[in-house]
Design goal:
alpha/beta, disordered N terminus, five-stranded antiparallel β-sheet, 16 strands, 374 residues, binds S-adenosylmethionine, globular
């Protein structure tokens, strides 16, 4: 029986393919490892099954409470008004999971006259199983699916991405006494297992490291996400040319601190990054500073990042919770309170998760974000 997680890919097939590839071609970068483990068409973690929810590997904000997707839907409604209420407008979600966030956002969209009827829905998703799940959740919304952002249509856009960018492959650079090296994934034939290795130092690796960290002490690690940068530039250019706004929510940092954040999560617990590849989710914290620079390089104006708790409170989560409690049983009211605290408290998701907005530069400051510094 293939070793697999509650969901996700086939760990035995993924390990065999990696072992063959590394034995044939030599060690691969951490980004190549993540790409193969998460997105390989046959055994990739995100190509099979449904990893979300209590029975899966992790729980996301829209699965905790309908309030999350509703408030992001209202954020889009506000942006749409600032855009001059164009019709049609493309509502795009990157990595929509079960479609829960989109369903909640579309329900909330009805609160703004004319908005829901102007929307057509686009989902960027690589998982066939999750696409099927999204089709079920969003029956009636008639979504169009895309494998990446390159096929998104022309015309004004509203883009939502929750816990999407953390799934994109990162390269890891490590400072040694002799200079900056790249971390690789190799194969140890004696132990029959994958193992980390380092390249020789090179100035091309040092050039990838932000100037503030270039002289960091040996042991420092910097992660760079080429896919996030490419998507950021593409989205930034689309927002500037086509008009619109994007909101990205994820765990991450404003500037790198010199520590690795790559982690594996299986059944709600930390797992080893190289053990049973394909049976655990692999994620890295999002470098919001780098993502904002990529969006700006494409031509968009950026706002934040702000803590998730700050954003949700500014968008009215307390008021929404109070409305939901009015018709709730005591048990349901307790669930609403618990979800509110989990999404906003600093020691839960409120501080670790952050939100970044990007807009067509003519749009002004989006709801829930502070004015830009000059
Ligand atoms: C952590 S889940 C988040 C799901 C959803 N946004 C939520 O908050 O519940 C990541 C989502 O991104 C999708 N995904 C992962 N890598 C992707 C890629 N390279 N391109 C498109 N979708 C991807 C996954 O299949 C999944 O739908």
């Amino acid at each position: 029986m293939p070793a697999s997680g509650a969901s996700g890919g086939d760990a035995t097939a993924a390990f065999a393919a990696l072992r063959a590839r590394i034995t044939r071609d030599g060690p691969i970068t951490v980004a190549q490892y993540m790409a193969e483990v998460l997105a390989h068409p046959e055994h990739g973690y995100y190509r099979r099954g449904d990893p979300l929810g209590a029975g899966g590997d992790f729980v996301t904000a829209p699965e905790i409470s309908q309030m999350f997707g509703e408030l992001l839907g209202l954020w889009c409604a506000d942006a749409w008004q600032r855009m001059g209420a164009p019709s049609p407008v493309h509502l795009v979600e990157l990595g929509p999971g079960r479609g829960t966030l989109m369903a909640d956002a579309l329900r909330a969209a009805r609160m703004m006259p004319g908005f829901r009827d102007s929307l057509d829905v686009h989902l960027v998703e690589i998982s066939a199983d999750l696409r099927a799940r999204q089709a079920e959740t969003l029956r009636g919304a008639d979504p169009a699916w895309h494998t990446d952002t390159s096929t998104l249509p022309d015309g004004p856009l509203l883009v939502i991405a929750n816990e999407f960018f953390d799934a994109l492959p990162v390269r890891q650079f490590e400072r040694t006494p002799d200079g900056w090296c790249e971390r690789l994934v190799g194969y140890d034939p004696r132990a029959d297992r994958l193992a980390f290795a380092l390249t020789r130092p090179a100035s091309s690796f040092a050039a990838q490291v932000p100037a503030a960290l270039r002289d960091a002490a040996p042991g420092a690690v910097v992660e760079v996400c080429p896919a996030a940068q490419a998507i950021g530039r593409d989205l930034g250019a689309r927002l500037a040319e086509q008009g619109g706004a994007a909101i990205v929510v994820d765990y991450g940092y404003a500037a790198p601190a010199g520590r690795a954040s790559l982690q594996a999560v299986r059944r709600h617990a930390r797992a080893e990054v190289l053990a049973q590849p394909g049976s655990a989710d692999l994620t890295a914290h999002v470098d919001f500073g780098a993502l904002a620079r990529a969006l700006a390089a494409g031509g968009a104006a950026t706002f934040g990042p702000v803590p998730q708790g700050t954003l949700l409170n500014a968008l009215g989560i307390a008021e929404r919770a109070a409305i939901l409690r009015r018709n709730a049983t005591p048990e349901q009211a307790a669930d609403i309170d618990a979800a509110y605290r989990r999404l906003t408290d600093a020691d839960a998701m409120g501080e670790l998760f952050r939100a970044l907005a990007a807009t067509d530069p003519t749009l002004g400051t989006p709801a829930g974000f502070p004015e830009r510094m000059a």
